[in-house]
C-alpha cells in the first residue's frame, strides 16, 4: 500500500511539473513559480471535494463528540466541556453532566453517548479545582489529603457557578457557534451528576443549606429535571424534611447497598435520605444490591469491579433515558415505563425500586 501511495503521489507531482512547464512557457514566467500556482489550485480543489463530502455526511448524520473550552471572563475561569450531539439537526433537549471529585468531562461517557443516541444534546462539564488536577501530579501518599481539601464548600459554589455560566454560554453558542448553532433546545434542560456531581445537582435543584434563620439556596430555574448518582446529605443537616423539601423538580436517585466513600462521610443509608425526605414530584429511587460507589463514574463503562457492572450499566442506560424522555419531553409511554410494575422485572429481585409523588 505504501508503494502504491508513493507511486500515486509521484504521478501527481510529475503531472504538476509538466503542467507548470507548459503554463510557464505560455505565460512567459518561470516554471518553478507556475508549479507553486498549480499546487495551490490543486490543493484548493481537493479541499473543496473533501468539504463537499463532509457536508454531505453531516446533512445525513449530524452526531458529534466534541471537546470545547468555555472561558468565563467574569470569573477568570475556564470550564472544559465534552459535547455529545445527536444525529438529528433538530434542536435537542439538553442534559448537563457534573463529574465526581477528581473526575473530568469524560466521566459517565457511557451514558453521555447513549443519551445523545437517544436524541439529547449532552454537555459534560469539568470543574477545575475539584477535577483530576487535584491528584494527578500529587505524590500518592498525599493524594487523599488533597482530595479531602478539594471537597469544600468553596468548590461547590464554583461548580454551581459553572452550571449557570455553561447555560448562559450555551444560549450564546446556540446563536452562532459552528457546531452548536440551532442544535439546542434550552427550554428543556436536565442535570445529572455523580458523587460531588450529585451534590452539585442537588444544589441547583433547590436543596436548602444552613438553618431556617439563615438559609442558603442555589436553585437554577432553567433546570427542569435531575438525576443524582450517589446523592448525599449535607454536613450538619439535621432537619432533613426542611433540607430536601425544597427540591421541587422530578428527580431520579441511584445508589447501592455498598455505596460509601472515603471522603464526605456518606453511607449507603444516608444516600437514600434525599429521596425519602424530598418533595420533588415525581421522584424515583433505585438501590442496586451490592452496588458500590464506582458503578456510575466508570467512563466508557469498561471499569468492572464485579460481574454485575455490565447489567447495571445497561439498566442505567435504559432507566435514565426513560426518565429524560418522560420529564424533559413529556413522553407518556416513558412515564408509564417508570412505573414499579414495569421496572421491577428489569432489575434484580433484591434491588430496591420506589417512586413517590407529593
Description:
- About 35% of the residues are buried.
- Residues about 1-60 have low confidence and may be disordered.
- It is globular and about 45 Å long.
- The longest helix has 30 residues, at about 30-60.
- With about 350 residues, the chain is an alpha/beta fold.
- The protein has a 9-stranded mixed beta sheet with strand order 1-2-4-3-5-8-9-10-11, sandwiched between helices. The chain has a two-stranded antiparallel ribbon with strand order 6-7.
- It has helices spanning about 1-25, 30-60, 110-115, 145-150, 155-175, 195-205, 240-245, 275, 310-325, 330-335, 340-345, and strands at about 65-70, 75-85, 90-100, 120-125, 185-195, 210, 215, 225-230, 250-260, 285-290, 350-355.
- Strand 8 (about 225-230), helix 7 and strand 9 form a beta-alpha-beta unit.
- It folds into 2 domains: about 1-60; about 60-355, Alpha/Beta hydrolase fold, catalytic domain (Rossmann fold), CATH 3.40.50.1820.
Amino acid at each position: 500500500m505504501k508503494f502504491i501511495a508513493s507511486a500515486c503521489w509521484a504521478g501527481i507531482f510529475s503531472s504538476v511539473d509538466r503542467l507548470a512547464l507548459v503554463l510557464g512557457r505560455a505565460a512567459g514566467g518561470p516554471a518553478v513559480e507556475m508549479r507553486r500556482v498549480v499546487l495551490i489550485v490543486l490543493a484548493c480543489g481537493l479541499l473543496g471535494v473533501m468539504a463537499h463530502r463532509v457536508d454531505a455526511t453531516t446533512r445525513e448524520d449530524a452526531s458529534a463528540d466534541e471537546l470545547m473550552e468555555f472561558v468565563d471572563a467574569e470569573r477568570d475561569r475556564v470550564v472544559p466541556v465534552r459535547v455529545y450531539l445527536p444525529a438529528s439537526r433538530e434542536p435537542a433537549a439538553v442534559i448537563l453532566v457534573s463529574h465526581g471529585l477528581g473526575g473530568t468531562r469524560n466521566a459517565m461517557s457511557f451514558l453521555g453517548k447513549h443519551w445523545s443516541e437517544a436524541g439529547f444534546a449532552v454537555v459534560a462539564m469539568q470543574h477545575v479545582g475539584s477535577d483530576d488536577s487535584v491528584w494527578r501530579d500529587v505524590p500518592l501518599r498525599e493524594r487523599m489529603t488533597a482530595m479531602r481539601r478539594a471537597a469544600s464548600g468553596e468548590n461547590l459554589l464554583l461548580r454551581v457557578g459553572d452550571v449557570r455560566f455553561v447555560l448562559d454560554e450555551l444560549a450564546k453558542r446556540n446563536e452562532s457557534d459552528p457546531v452548536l448553532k440551532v442544535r439546542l433546545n434550552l427550554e428543556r434542560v436536565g442535570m445529572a451528576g455523580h458523587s460531588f456531581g450529585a451534590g452539585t445537582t442537588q444544589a441547583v435543584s433547590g436543596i436548602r443549606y444552613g438553618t431556617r434563620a439563615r438559609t442558603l439556596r442555589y436553585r437554577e430555574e432553567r433546570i427542569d429535571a435531575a438525576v443524582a448518582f450517589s446523592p448525599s446529605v449535607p454536613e450538619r443537616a439535621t432537619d432533613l424534611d426542611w433540607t430536601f423539601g425544597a427540591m421541587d423538580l422530578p428527580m431520579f436517585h441511584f445508589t447501592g447497598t455498598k455505596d460509601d466513600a472515603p471522603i464526605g462521610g456518606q453511607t449507603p443509608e444516608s444516600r437514600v435520605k434525599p429521596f425519602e425526605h424530598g418533595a420533588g414530584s415525581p421522584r424515583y429511587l433505585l438501590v442496586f444490591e451490592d452496588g458500590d460507589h464506582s458503578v456510575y463514574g466508570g467512563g466508557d463503562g469498561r471499569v468492572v469491579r464485579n460481574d454485575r457492572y455490565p447489567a447495571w450499566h445497561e439498566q442505567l442506560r435504559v432507566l435514565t433515558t426513560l426518565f429524560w424522555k418522560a420529564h424533559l419531553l413529556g413522553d407518556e409511554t416513558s412515564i408509564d415505563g417508570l412505573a414499579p410494575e414495569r421496572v421491577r422485572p428489569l432489575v434484580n429481585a433484591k434491588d430496591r425500586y420506589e417512586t413517590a409523588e407529593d
